Amino acid sequence: MPRIEIATIALALAACAEAHVPDDAPMPTPCADTDELDLLIVIDNSGSLGEEQASLSEALPRFVQALSTGDRDDDGARDFDPVTSLHVAIVTTDMGVGGHDVPTCDGGLFGAEAGDDGVMITRGRTAITGCLPSYPAVFEHHAGGDASSFAFDVSCVLNATGGCGFEQPLEAALKALSPAAPQPGMIDGYTPPLFHRGTRGHGDGRNAGFLRENSVLAVLVVTDEEDCSTTDPGIFDPSDARFSSVDLNLRCFSFPDVPHRVARYAAGEDGRAGLLGLRRDPSRVVLGVLAGIPVAATPDPARPDYDVILGHPDMQEIVDPSIPTRLRPSCNVPGRGLSFAPRRIVETARALEARGAGAMVGSICQESYDGTLDAMVDTLAAALTRPECS
């Protein structure tokens, strides 16, 4: 090729680069898959979740085995590149009630003030044969390890009831993962969020070491109630005059401006926080939802149709005419209790997916969670093999 053409092409390429890459833009990082997965399970530990926790525990060995082998359907063939390094940690939905006197809400790590506060749980349920009194905050599993033994240890921590009946899973997840200062692997300009009484998150404090720089971050929310992550704990105070005209059980529904906006949990109010702020590449974030969604509304949990889910008649929040101190249940499995529409949690999944994250939305209203966790594996596999390019 003549030198003049080479020079012309070189100048054109340089001009393109100059036009599209600002001087202050970060250097691009190499595109690469990852084999690291950091999974945070946010478990509803209120008194109504015993059967659901047991069902989740039964499904965990198959789930861990699929991730660690890359064999989704147990046919002996690899369907995706396996996870060779898995972190699992557990937080509860109990974030306290601001110190107010509310039944069931005084038993967390920090009592009625802050509940378990998004701190990763280490206490084991010794009532289950074989469970130890305590475990590491972060469970670690490596390829070739015993998936069943690992899953059993995880289940010893996630099986717990007696927590606060006001569930705040979104706030628990955000506080568990958010650091007080930006960390490697996060978006440029990350803005650490503030929490109850001006506190910061535990990502680089009590929960340090869970989230790694190059991992896929997954959050699995398991609850039979709507999220009530709030800006004002006065909503939980039985005697607060601002809210006392409404039964305590209906306040988060009756005062929808008091809970945080769901934008806080997707990308933050300024677009530089939330779950998406924790990863440079939004495709490295996955939210799984196992909540009170009618089974018919989510036939394919790995591909949620948010209009169908949120438009389903049983997903509409209506005061129960037969028991006016509660909302109408969204689903009911005989022998397992009632569940209620998790509209805020579903809206958060939609907001995340709209920005490039992955989402799985399944129903807690069934006896087996094998199919739902299979869908979670599908969603995670896509995130693990999607290149990260900043």
SSE layout:
Blueprint: H1 3-20, E1 36-43, H2 50-69, E2 85-92, H3 111-114, E3 139-142, H4 147-158, H5 169-177, E4 216-222, H6 251-254, H7 263-266, E5 285-291, H8 306-311, E6 331-333, E7 337-339, H9 343-354, E8 358-363, H10 370-385
Parallel strand pairs: 1-2, 1-4, 4-5, 5-8
Antiparallel strand pairs: 2-3, 6-7
Helix pairs in contact: 2-4, 2-10
Descriptive notes:
This protein has 390 residues and is an alpha/beta fold. The chain has one domain (35-385). The chain has ten helices and eight strands. It has a six-stranded mixed beta sheet, with helices on both faces. A two-stranded antiparallel sheet has the order 6-7. The protein is globular and about 60 Å long.
The geometry reads as globular
> From the alpha-carbon coordinates, what is the Rg to the nearest angstrom?
22 Å
Order of helices and strands: HEHEHEHHEHHEHEEHEH
What count of domains describes the coordinates? 1
- Work out the helicity level: 25-40%
Mean pLDDT: 91
Helix/sheet category: alpha/beta
How many β strands by DSSP? 8
State the main characteristics.
390 residues; alpha/beta; 6-stranded mixed beta sheet; two-stranded antiparallel sheet; 8 strands; 27% helix
In summary, what is this structure?
Helix content is 27%, strand content 12%.
